[in-house]
Amino acid sequence: MNGKVMEINCDLGEGFGRWKVADDRALMKHITTANIATGFHASDPVTMRETVKAAVDHGLQIGAHTGLPDLLGFGRRRLALSPQEMRDYNTYQIGALKAFVEAEGGEVAHVKPHGVMYFQAYEDDELAEAVFAAVAEIDSSMLVYWFDTGQQHLADKYGLTLIPEGFPDLQYDDHGMLVIERVKRSWAPEVVADRAAQITLDGRIETDSGRSIPIEAETLCLHGDSSSSPEVLRAVKERLLAEGVAVRAQRPPRR
Amino acid sequence: MNGKVMEINCDLGEGFGRWKVADDRALMKHITTANIATGFHASDPVTMRETVKAAVDHGLQIGAHTGLPDLLGFGRRRLALSPQEMRDYNTYQIGALKAFVEAEGGEVAHVKPHGVMYFQAYEDDELAEAVFAAVAEIDSSMLVYWFDTGQQHLADKYGLTLIPEGFPDLQYDDHGMLVIERVKRSWAPEVVADRAAQITLDGRIETDSGRSIPIEAETLCLHGDSSSSPEVLRAVKERLLAEGVAVRAQRPPRR
Amino acid sequence: MNGKVMEINCDLGEGFGRWKVADDRALMKHITTANIATGFHASDPVTMRETVKAAVDHGLQIGAHTGLPDLLGFGRRRLALSPQEMRDYNTYQIGALKAFVEAEGGEVAHVKPHGVMYFQAYEDDELAEAVFAAVAEIDSSMLVYWFDTGQQHLADKYGLTLIPEGFPDLQYDDHGMLVIERVKRSWAPEVVADRAAQITLDGRIETDSGRSIPIEAETLCLHGDSSSSPEVLRAVKERLLAEGVAVRAQRPPRR
Amino acid sequence: MNGKVMEINCDLGEGFGRWKVADDRALMKHITTANIATGFHASDPVTMRETVKAAVDHGLQIGAHTGLPDLLGFGRRRLALSPQEMRDYNTYQIGALKAFVEAEGGEVAHVKPHGVMYFQAYEDDELAEAVFAAVAEIDSSMLVYWFDTGQQHLADKYGLTLIPEGFPDLQYDDHGMLVIERVKRSWAPEVVADRAAQITLDGRIETDSGRSIPIEAETLCLHGDSSSSPEVLRAVKERLLAEGVAVRAQRPPRR
């Protein structure tokens, strides 16, 4: 063991009614932490119950994956929200998930906004604070997953800790920003595993121009919505373990 | 004082976005208890926050007014739900409201299903138990408002107490069932006050055929969505006070 | 050729935003007629445009597959509708589809309600007439696909023709009613092809008790939402052709 | 008569299910032209039918008032749409309204986007063309109501005519742009009538800084959602008539 610790988180429960996007149970074996959709960009109460149950069964850390009220756009279209709306949408969704998680014997350990809600909050301090306020007024011991810790001084006002994320299966530009493409580039499992190892061991990532830049990350986010996702997740986990990294949730649930 | 105690509850926060149904603050002065809509048949996160804040400010007991997922039908159209759906829809909505209420320094003291969800659960023991299970897994000290106590033996399985409601501004038939009409009959404030007093003092109500039948009621539900509602609520409260009745919530919030 | 003619119709375009249920283009090769979802139980404007375009490209007859306003339940949960609502929901959806179809150079040849809307209309003459009125006021030359022709006398009042459907991939009971199960029985392609041939050549179908009963059907509905659907569709079409049946739409589009 | 002609249009049918915003029939007496909401930012099929019927009864010109798919935000929050989405959302909504209007014996004479959809299309040529394409592929004889005629060269590509609108009950800045405030300024009926007369007779409007600027307007849009709206509408119409202006729709329906 090299003393390094890393978490693998994945967005889950992103179906809606009859529609599914992934075989969540196949993914859960390879991760430590589930960001569970809360009904605004995806999911519904029955899907939430099932996903929460499965996540508890798998001993995963659970977080609320809150989104914009845009099922049709899967929370990926910018929607001009006021800070009040941003706050209240988060309060509502976190509260709803918390009820399921506690009913199933777990606890909500963190909050991570989804898609464009995540970007909008990251880009606008007032909207970021709206998210932080919503989290803190429910339980300030919850962690907040964020792109980086540049807004930790704002989170401090609410007694919150930001956990910076790395995204081994997405592209970065030379400024360390994610490059979001309409059609996601699909890397081979070993490539993603390499990138995950880079982030974890070296604190660096290769950008789309081929440069290597520093990146802060205490958790790795991997996507579950492609057919190769289970294989990618397995490859990442095995690679990290082979490198002597302890693969562990930020807040492993008590058994 | 005659030792009698009665509660006046009202369904509030039943707007949606730009649309409103009532001037909730005008109603809050005359009641003890607010059933706050939770986003499925009506309301949205911003409306919920505002309504909860106002209810806390007015010192009202607060309950979750959960509904069917049918904004277009205002939760008043029968929708064939499975017990699992009934349970999970309640868990979701109660959890969401609880987050707002606790954030604003209050507590959710009770749950009362809305419209047809209320009827469907009342008519079907399995659906009733689905509601009870949802309430109990969140907090079995919450009260459940119900048409009568005929299903208390089912509630007992979940450690819950049913609080039977009387509806002075609705018509009853000779079997004690509510007569729901497309266009609500509008009674003069004094008539509703008379009926409220009948229920409270005599445990009886006059049916639409003119008979007087016994009715069990520990709380009175009055509707807030007509232009005369504030006047009706005031008349009922004044009449009860004039009769020596203590007008008080089941669970008055701690100040 | 034995002089027999049969149509193969399939419900298409039943995704919603990011969610899909089937690879519609793979299905289109094997059918004559597309029932295209219209945004209430499934689909959205962009999906409708894409599905319509593909159906026009494949030379398919196009119909409006109208549903209940219940995305979450995929239009499969009974919802108590008034005749006015039934009519207006159909008017709205047919009108919306018509705009896409005509923009893409096709025409709406028929209407077929989806899921529980289909059953509710079939079981209640007043609701059936509400559908017929909606169709007729838009264009009474459109065909109406229906379980059987028992309500043709009602359709006559609106100048409409009912086209009875057979469902080779569903079970029938001894009264000729469909047996809808939570988990659909999955028959081998040859079994479904056999059943399709039975309906087409003999006008009979085997029930779940093993009896053979008469069935009227001028069109065959096959489902596209299982992984074996393309194979099943191909098997049915090939079998009908092998039996000398002309596989043809009721209203083949003009080229 | 001074030979001047002006149209008075109003956005109508902007309720949703149980919720209403205005007494539309009270407004219809004073206008020539109804922009009828089509179910995305407001309205639903039953409301559309009722509004269309009433508009036909009142002999009004009817247009499709298309909006963003954001009931919760009443179509007033920017939503990042692709041109394809913009086009298809308009096709869908215009088609739906057209079915009701033609069923009731009228015709859709124009299209006018609502709220932020209107602004987004006006500000972005690609989105403007998406709207124009949707209108033209349904019926290029429909008029398109627009802030001004600056994009007529784009409309020309689709064979469409833009009709520039004036807004006597809204504020303008010195650049001729509308000043949209959270809480609308409420002008006395005579003030709005004065502004309507200014626009109609002089082709000028007073800005919020007190300057008078030129404005092109072939139709006047007045809002129906405040309690004084019927009075304002009456005042405007009477004032225009008193000034010798013919108050007439762009496309008066044939009787």
List keywords for this structure.
homotetramer, alpha/beta, globular, 8 helices, 7-stranded parallel barrel, 255 residues
The major sheet of chain A is characterized as: 7 strands, parallel, barrel
Count of separate DSSP helical elements of chain A: 8
The most extensive contact between chains is: A-B, 24 and 24 residues
Strand content of chain A: 15-25%
Helical/strand content category of chain A: alpha/beta
What shape does the CA trace of chain A take?
globular
Provide the gyration radius of chain A in Å.
17 Å
Strand tally of chain A is 13
What strand line-up does the widest sheet of chain A have?
2-3-4-5-6-7-12
H and E string of chain A: EEHEHEHEHHEHEEEHEEEHE
Mean of residue pLDDT of chain A?
Answer: 96
Binned, the helix content of chain A reads 25-40%
Question: How do the helices and strands line up, and which of them pair or pack?
Answer:
Four copies of one chain form a homotetramer.
Chain A: E1 5-6, E2 8-12, H1 24-28, E3 33-37, H2 45-57, E4 61-65, H3 83-103, E5 108-111, H4 115-123, H5 125-139, E6 143-146, H6 152-156, E7 162-166, E8 171-172, E9 178-179, H7 189-202, E10 204-206, E11 212-214, E12 219-222, H8 229-242, E13 246-247
Parallel strand pairs in A: 1-13, 2-3, 2-12, 3-4, 4-5, 5-6, 6-7, 7-12
Antiparallel strand pairs in A: 8-9, 10-11
Helix pairs in contact in A: 3-5, 4-5, 7-8
